[in-house]
Structures are given as C-alpha cells and as structure tokens.
Amino acid sequence: MKKIIYVLTFHVLACGVYAQSDTIVERNVTVEREFTPVIQEAGKIQTRPDVYNPAIQKQEVDYVTGFNKPLDIQNDFSFLPYADMNFVQPRLERGFLRGGVGVWNSLFDFKYRMSDKNDVFFDAALDHNGLWGNKTLSQTGLDLAFEKLFSNAGLFCSVGADNTWFNYYGRYYDNQQNTYDFTRMSSDTALYGRFWNIDTRIGVRSLPMSNVDFLVQAGYEMFNTRIGLTEHQVHTQASVEWELNNSRLGATTDVQNLFYASQDTALSVRAHHIWHLEPYYVYEGDIFRLHAGVNFDFSFGKGPLFRPSPNVDFEVRLAPKWLAFYGGVTGEYKVNTLETTMQENRYLLPQIHVCDTLNTYTPANGFLGFKLKPHDNLQINAYAKYAYTFDQYYHVFDTQGSGMFSTIKANTACFKAGAALSYHYQDIVNVSVDGSYNYWQAEGQLHAWDRPAWEIHASVYVKATDKLSFYTDNYFNGKRYALLSSGETSLLKPVYDVNIGASYAFSRWFSAFLKLNNLVHNRYEVFYGYQVQGINFLAGVSWAF
After folding, report:
1. Taking Cα atoms as reference points, which of 71, 52, 66, 8 lies closest to residue 252?
2. pLDDT reading at 517 higher than 50
3. Which of 381, 365, 357, 356 is nearest to 332 (CA)?
4. Which of 189-193, 218-222, 240-244 has maximum average pLDDT?
5. CA distance 37 to 432
6. Do 523 and 517 form a contact (C-beta atoms < 8 A)?
7. Exposure pattern of 515-525 as b/e (b: 16+ CB <10 Å)?
8. Residue 267, phi then psi, degrees to nearest 5
9. Predicted local distance difference test score (pLDDT) of residue 376
10. What CATH number is attached to the domain comprising 222?
C-alpha cells in the first residue's frame, strides 16, 4: 500500500500538464443535461466520474460535426445483458429522479446538484440497474464530483464506488451428453459473482481565458473480484497545447501503474507499468485539416518494452457544404486491465490476467472514407479500414462444468467496410442506420472467435405530439463461432434484437415511459452458454425538481 501512495504522490508532483484547444468540459455527474432528440439509453449512461476525458475534440464547423467515425474494429456488436431503456429526459431543475420496474427488471436514478454557485459546483449521483430471476445482474453506483473555479484554472476532484452482483446462469454442461443444457441450473448457490470498484481522482484544468490550455489529473482505482483478487491502479494523465494561428502544437502523456494483491499465494502476481507519450501537430484550415502525431508506448513488467505507432489523420473538404474525404493511419497499445476485461466478460477467470498480460498492440490501422450531405437533414458516411493487431485475445469456454472462460491469443487482421446514415427533421423525426461487413483472419485459428461478419444498428425516434414520443432501437449481428476448451467449435445463431418504447410528458418536469425489449424473443448468446433475457418490459416515471 505504501508503494501505491508513493507512486501517486510522485505523479501528482512530477507530471506535466494537459490541454485541449477550445476545451469543452462535460461532467458526467451532473443534472444539467441538455435535451436532445437522439434518445439516450439509461442502461448505458455513464455516471462514474471520468471528469475530464483527453479524447474531447475541438468542435468542427459546418456539417462535419455529427458524422460518425469508423466503428471500433475490436468488438463492435452491442451486448444487452439486461434491459436497457431509452427515453427522453424532461427539462431539469436542480435534481432528477427516475424509477422503473418490469418483468424481472428494475431501474433507479437520482442526481442532485448540492452546490451551484458561480465558482463552486458539487454534484451527487446514485444509479441502479437490475435484472433478477434465473439471470441475475445488479449494478449500483454512487458518485460525487466537486469543482472550484479560479480566474484562469479550475480545481476538480471526484470519488465513485459501484458494485456488480451477478450469477453464473449458463454454467451447466452435460459431459455425458456432450451438450449444453440451458434448462438446468447448478444447485451450488455459492457460485455468484461480485465486483467492487472504487475510482478517485483530482486535477487542475485551464479555463478558456488562459493563454495556454492545460489539464493534469491523477487518480487511484481499485477493482476487487469475488475470489479475492484485487487490482490497484494509479493513473495519471496530462497534456499541454499551444495555439499557433490556424495550427496547434501539443503533447499528451499517460502513466498507468498496476499492482495486484491476491489471497491465493499460488498466483504469480506481478506489477505492471505503462507510459504513453504522444507529441502532435494539428492544422485546421477551411479546406484541409490534419492531425500528425506519434505514439510512444513503453511497458515495464510485462510484455515488450517499446511499442510505437503512428497517429495521423486528415480531412479534405472539397465542397465544404456537402462533400469531404478523410483518411489516416493510426495505432494503439491497448492496456486491458483486470477491470476492463472482467467488465467485458464477467465470466472470465480473473486469475489468468495476473499470470499473463492481455494487452494488445495495433501498429497500423489505416482507413479511408467520405462524408456526404445531399440534403440539409441527411448525412452519409462511408468508409473502409484495415487493421493488424498483435496478441488479440479470444474467450474459450470451459466444458468441464465451471461455466467460465479462459483466453487464447492470436495475431489478427481485419478488413472492415461500412456506412452510416443519419436523417433528422427538427426535433420531430430522427433516423439512424449504420452497418458494416468485417473480414477476419486470426493466425493459427479457424475463426476470429465471437466476432461477427455483419453488424447493423438502426434506431428511429418520432415525436408524435408535444407530449407523446415513440422510438425503436434494433440490432442485428451475423453468425459467430465460439471455441470450447475441448477443441470443439460452436456456431452461435445471429442476433436479432428489436426494442420499442414510448414516453409521455405530463408536464415539463414529470413524464412516464414504457420500454418493450427483445420483441422477437430471440434468446441469442452473448457468449457461448450465456443467453440474453427473452421478451420483457420496463415501465416507470421521471421527475425533475
């Protein structure tokens, strides 16, 4: 513990500064959300205090703002482990309260601004999503965020804690019949999982009137699993940026120090330290935009020492009102912490992470595309990209009855081609459709396990009257293959997930909502052996005060 405190103190004192030009700061823990006709998903609203994200970009001009960029190449299809709920929030005053219940579902949100003086802000948030019955998943979090503004800078700090409680509902495998029996459950009630997560951070940022944009933040994160394995992370981020006429010059740095503690002395627990540095240059003209940077990633304790990659992208606005081309070559050294891997797949054996690193390295990810706006209300984005990733990890289901997953690694190439279409008419109609085709090649493997070839997402929002709104949110993913520890493969059926909902505003501060999920009752598998919930509903009310 002393080592963690020393590292945190060192980073707070010695780390540089962080900045963005024309920085736009958004607090996730706040009740001042602007109304948007694009429907929010309550189950995916982030309330943990990631107070300032280095990925915030300077606002673009004209139609370019709002275009979707190419989707992530790793794992694009959406997981729906419990009933996500879409709705339109009422106008907020100082606080916000929302609650809902349904068939095995529950939802609760509470957000309140305890102080909103001109230079002092203090926000609190409590949220809960629950799925009960044979498939149990309960997620509850509490977050506090504080900020004090000075003349040219702001001091902020935050603390958050959340708990995840779930069961291994798909664990039974019949070795005699060599089949997976979804109708049988284990009688061992001790096979439940629980995660505890604590996230704290403190930092300083520049305000718009500052001559130099900067931000530096340091934090401590703790992630604990049911088996007594705990990950401690000291995470420091910083950057600085200077404005030079139509261009900007800057640098970002990111330091992650990972420590592990386990009640099992047989586990080989090693510390892991990662340092990321990117100097970059940005030019923004009326016709041409360029970001040119180089990623330098160093890993100490696990994996290769040095992992460089480019970070270059450009955009040419041939017709600034309706046509632009873009492209680039980027790369990434992705740090897959114990927290991120376990949140991706709750049924992963946590001890495999501390015995071997699951970090992945993409030295080159090239993409080209164009953006077209044939009408003021219609936007089209088409693209193609190719990426090659070292040590991509895949899940392997244990057929010996544990109901859990291990991993294997394979260097993986992926070609992706896709397009996104967005149409809106004022705040009355919003239509969004995006889809892609993926061609995977995993070295030494028959398939890129759990990765779909086709992915489509379509959503429609219609404001029928001033008070009544309807929407639908739909997902389709093509067939996927799963790998079993016995060496067998299993074909997972395609994903068809159709969801509809409605909301009615009785006043500007009180509304009711109804969500119907998985209308086609397609019990597809998120991972092999773990089916999603069938048709279900969720109903509730929202109150701003």
Report:
1. 52
2. yes
3. 365
4. 218-222
5. 12
6. no
7. bbbbbeebebb
8. -75, 140
9. 86
10. 2.40.170.20
Residue 183's contacts (CB-CB under 8 Å, 6 or more residues apart) are none
Distance in angstroms (rounded) separating the CA atoms of residues 511 and 513: 7
Question: Between vectors from CA 190 to CA 188 and to CA 193, what angle results, nearest 5°?
Answer: 125
Gap between the Cα atoms of 204 and 218, Å rounded: 10
Residue 262 has pLDDT above 60, yes or no: yes
Question: How many domains does one find in the chain?
Answer: 1
Which tens digit of pLDDT belongs to each residue from 90-114? 444 688 899 999 988 899 999 998 8
Indicate if the pLDDT at residue 401 is higher than 70: no
Q: Which of 3-17, 81-95, 102-116, 287-301 has the lowest mean pLDDT?
A: 3-17
What does the alpha-carbon distance between residue 64 and residue 379 come to, in Å, rounded to a whole number? 9
Q: List C-alpha distances in Å: 166 to 105, 224, 383.
A: 14, 14, 39
CA 431 to chain CA mean position, Å: 23
**Which token pair is 178?**
């060599």
Q: Which of 474, 478, 472, 486 minimizes the C-alpha distance to 406?
A: 486
pLDDT at 323 over 80: yes
Dump pLDDT digits (tens) for 132-148: 877 888 999 999 999 99
Helix spans in 324-371 (H): 338-344, 351-355
Indicate the burial class of 286 (C-beta count within 10 angstroms; 0-12, 13-18, 19 or more): exposed
pLDDT-wise least confident of 176-180, 208-212, 434-438:
176-180
Please state, in angstroms and as integers, the Cα–Cα distance from residue 280 to each residue in 169, 312, 321, 501, 520, following that order: 48, 9, 28, 45, 49
Q: If you search the block for the tokens 């061609």, which residue do you land on?
A: 439
Using CA atoms, how far apart are residues 162 and 108, in angstroms rounded to an integer?
Answer: 14
> Mapping DSSP to helix (H, G, I), strand (E, B) and coil, where does residue 72 land?
coil
- Expressed as residue numbers, the domain containing 236 is 2-544
Is the pTM value of this prediction over 0.90? no
Instruction: List phi, psi (to 5°) of 285.
Output: -115, 180
Residues 6+ apart with CB under 8 A from 104: 131, 132, 133, 135, 533, 536
| pLDDT value for 167 | 82
CA atoms within 13 Å, Cβ hemisphere of 449: 26
The two structure tokens encoding residue 471: 């929407």
Cα 172 from Cα 177, distance rounded (Å): 12
